[in-house]
Design goal:
single chain, alpha/beta, Molybdenum Cofactor Biosythetic Enzyme, Chain A, Molybdopterin biosynthesis moeA protein, domain 3, 6-stranded mixed β-sheet, 7 helices, about 20% helix
Length: about 425
C-alpha cells in the first residue's frame, strides 16, 4: 500500500522549517530597493548636520521682529554657503531653504510675511524663536538605531542610507534558481510550429518570470529528453545552483525519469514526493548537494499552482523575507461550489465587487492543461479537504495573485 498523501499545510511546514535565508551580499544602494537588509543600520552622522532654514525667507532675531518693523538686509545665505558670518543686531539676512542658520539668528520669517524694499525688508507678522528652523540632529542623532535586519528596503530607506554617507549596503543574497524541464514532446517557443505529438514549452518562461518577479535569479536550462542518464546528468549539473526547479517527469510512467532520479540522488534528503493538492499531486521537495530541489508536475496549470503554493514561499524565505505566505482573503461565491474531496483544491478564479463585497467567480474549466483560464485568473479559490458544498453568495477564501500590498507585508503569518 502506498504512503498516505501529505497535506498541503504539512508539506509547506516541512519546506519552511528547512529553508533558511542565504548569506549577505553587498550591493550599491540603487540596486538594493526591495531587497532584504542583512545588517543593522546605526546612524554614524547627525541629520541635519547643522541648524538650517526650512523655508525661503529672512534669518532674524525674534526679539527684533514685530509687524511693521523695517530691518536692513545685510547679506544673503544660500544652500551650500557656510553661514559663518554672525547676524548683526536689528538686521536681517536673506536666507534660502537648506542654508545654514547664521550665528545670532534664532528664527526665520518666511518671505510671504515680508515686503522687500531695496536693502530693507518690512515685516508683516511677528515670529517666534525657533520658527522655520531645522535643528541639528532633530531628525537623526549619532548612534541612533535606524533600520533592522530583515527589513525590505524602500527608496526612502536607501535615501536615508545615502544621507548617512553610505553608497553600498548588505542585503540577503538572491538565490540562483535553475529551471530544468524534461520531455520528448517539448519544443522551444521560438522553434517551428510543433508537429503531431509535440507541445510548445510554456512552463520554462512562465516559471522564470515568476522567479524573477520575487527578486531571485532564474537560469532556464535546455530541455532534457526522456533518457534516464541524461536526466541524472542534468540534475547533477543543475544542483550547482541554490535552487533547482524541475518540471515534468514526476509521475510513475515508464518515461517519467525525473522523479526516480530525484529519489535516487537525494536519498534520505528527499523530504516528500506526493501531496494532497489539486492540481499538482506529484510534487517533490528535497536536497541535492547544496541545492534545494522542487519537483513540479508537467501540466502548465499544475506547475504554476504548485509554484505559488510551495516554491514561492521558499524563495521568499531564502531571500530573507519575514512574511512568505499570501494572506487568505474572505470573499463570496458568484456561483455554487461542489463539496471538497480528499485533496485541497486551488481553483483558478476571477475577482470582482458586488454590493461592496469581494466576489469570486471560479465557474470555469479547472483542467490542469487549460492555460487560457490560468492566464485570465487573478486569484485561487481555496477548497479545503472535505469542505461542504456551497451556494452562490456563501463565504469562501481566496489567494489574490500578483504583488502583495504594503499592508500584507506587515503580517508574518506562516513565516
Amino acid at each position: 500500500m502506498s504512503a498516505p498523501l501529505l497535506s498541503v499545510a504539512d508539506a509547506r511546514a516541512i519546506i519552511l522549517d528547512r529553508v533558511a535565508p542565504l548569506g549577505p551580499v553587498r550591493l550599491p544602494l540603487e540596486e538594493a530597493v526591495d531587497r532584504v537588509l542583512a545588517e543593522p543600520v546605526v546612524a554614524t552622522r547627525t541629520l541635519p548636520a547643522f541648524d538650517d532654514s526650512a523655508m525661503d525667507g529672512y534669518a532674524v532675531r525674534a526679539a527684533d521682529c514685530a509687524p511693521g518693523r523695517r530691518l536692513p538686509v545685510v547679506g544673503e545665505i544660500a544652500a551650500g554657503a557656510t553661514g559663518a558670518e554672525p547676524l548683526p543686531a536689528e538686521a536681517a539676512l536673506r536666507i534660502f531653504t537648506g542654508a545654514p542658520l547664521p550665528p545670532g539668528a534664532d528664527a526665520v520669517i518666511i518671505q510671504e510675511d515680508t515686503r522687500r524694499d531695496g536693502d530693507v525688508v518690512e515685516l508683516l507678522a511677528a515670529v517666534q524663536p525657533g520658527a522655520h528652523i531645522r535643528r541639528a540632529g532633530s531628525d537623526v542623532a549619532v548612534g541612533q538605531p535606524l533600520l533592522a535586519p530583515g527589513r525590505c528596503l524602500t527608496p526612502g530607506d536607501v535615501a536615508l542610507l545615502s544621507a548617512l554617507g553610505r553608497s553600498r549596503v548588505d542585503v540577503v543574497a538572491a538565490p540562483v534558481v535553475a529551471l530544468l524541464l524534461s520531455g520528448d514532446e517539448l519544443v522551444e517557443p521560438d522553434a517551428a510550429p510543433p508537429g503531431r505529438g509535440q507541445v510548445t514549452s510554456s512552463n520554462g518562461v512562465a516559471l522564470a518570470a515568476a522567479v524573477r518577479a520575487l527578486g531571485a535569479t532564474p537560469r532556464l536550462l535546455p530541455i532534457v529528453r526522456d533518457d534516464a542518464d541524461a536526466v541524472r546528468a542534468a540534475l547533477l549539473a543543475a544542483s550547482r545552483a541554490d535552487v533547482v526547479i524541475t518540471v515534468g517527469g514526476m509521475s510513475v510512467g515508464d518515461h517519467d525519469h525525473l522523479g526516480r532520479a530525484l529519489s535516487a540522488l537525494c536519498g534520505a534528503d528527499l523530504g516528500f514526493w506526493r501531496v494532497a493538492i489539486r492540481p499538482g499531486k506529484p510534487f517533490a521537495f528535497g536536497r541535492l548537494n547544496d541545492a534545494w530541489v522542487f519537483g513540479l508536475p508537467g501540466n502548465p496549470v499544475s506547475a504554476l499552482v504548485t509554484f505559488e503554493v510551495f516554491v514561492r514561499p521558499a524563495l521568499l524565505r531564502l531571500l530573507g523575507h519575514a512574511r512568505v505566505l499570501r494572506r487568505l482573503r474572505p470573499a463570496t461565491l458568484a456561483h455554487a461550489l461542489p463539496a471538497g474531496g480528499g485533496r485541497e483544491e486551488y481553483r483558478r478564479a476571477r475577482l470582482g465587487w458586488r454590493q461592496g463585497r469581494l466576489e469570486v467567480d471560479a465557474d470555469r474549466s479547472q483542467s490542469s492543461g487549460a492555460l487560457s483560464i490560468l492566464a485570465g485568473a487573478d486569484a485561487l479559490l481555496v477548497v479545503r479537504v472535505g469542505a461542504p458544498a456551497r451556494a452562490a453568495g456563501d463565504a469562501a477564501e481566496v489567494l489574490v495573485l500578483g504583488p502583495d500590498s504594503p499592508l500584507d507585508r506587515l503580517s508574518t503569518d506562516g513565516g
